[in-house]
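Because discrete structure vocabularies remain unfamiliar, it helps to consider an illustrative case, giving the amino acid sequence and backbone structure tokens:
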Amino acid sequence: MKSRLTDRQKNQIARRNEAPDQHLEPGIVITHHGTELIIETADGRLLRATARRTLGALTTGDKIGWRTGKDQREIIEHLYPRTNTLIRPDTHGKLRLMAANIDQVLIVVAPVPWMNPNIVEQAIVATLDLPATPLIVLNKIDQLSQIAPQEQTLIEATLTLWQAQDIDIIRVSAQTGEGIDALRAQLANQLSMMIGLSGVGKTSLARSITSQASTAAIKALSAHSQEGQHTTRHSTLFRLDNLKGGLIDAPGVRDFAVAAQNVLAIDRAYPDILKVAQHCRFNNCSHGQEPSCAVLAAVASGALDARRFENYQSLKNDRQGSPHGA
């Protein structure tokens, strides 16, 4: 038989969620292992803590209020409002809360293997859908000179196209260190997350950004929870060296670029198409077979990139076919 909360208990829960005790200490969730969480205090200490069940599931990046109980154990009493949450399938296909309060997403690409631009644009849409700010990081720039000239031209043309849509692009080499300082400056005072295909150098890049991402630092952190062998299954927040801000490593995230819940995220990722669409004959033009469609005319003339337009239409169709579609 399930127990039911009394009205008094419900009121206590509501008060706990809405108005944190002024005596609570501020903190942030670094990682979690089942019911146990690692939190960072305002002065940078790492502590083990447990959370009140009434708070629900907590995740990396959550801003919390905590106190030390009578048994000298840390208790999380309050969860502050989130700006966003990342919910994605884990490696077993089960939807999980992966991270919260993400300011920007680093979409890492490399000359080899060069990522399908459609996938990059899907990641941009997913980032805007959180919402967060997308940042494209071209890693392994030291390898650009080793690829064929036509491939170099294609990469540069694609990067220029994205840059024209107000997407910041930073060129780095984790191998030589070129551009790393500029990237770290971009991450300052931000909570960032890194995504990218296997082989683009995410691990070496993370270690170039923060020493906490090294294997030794990971083991030291997981020692707090006594579950070192399972560390890579959980999202973890690494702090930047000598800078405010952090980098979230979420190795369990699969299928980051899912169908957008908000159609406006798709439109925001394709401002070039929206600008041309203002000249369509019909305000609700779907850019399919309508007469006097300015977008189709621009694609036919080469003023708009045909590959990019096809991806835009595909994302729109995917969104309409998803449970969140109209």
Notes: The CA atoms of residues 171 and 255 lie 25 Å apart. Confidence is low (pLDDT under 50) at residues 224-232. Residues 306-321 form the longest helix (16 residues). The first strand starts at residue 25 and ends at 33.
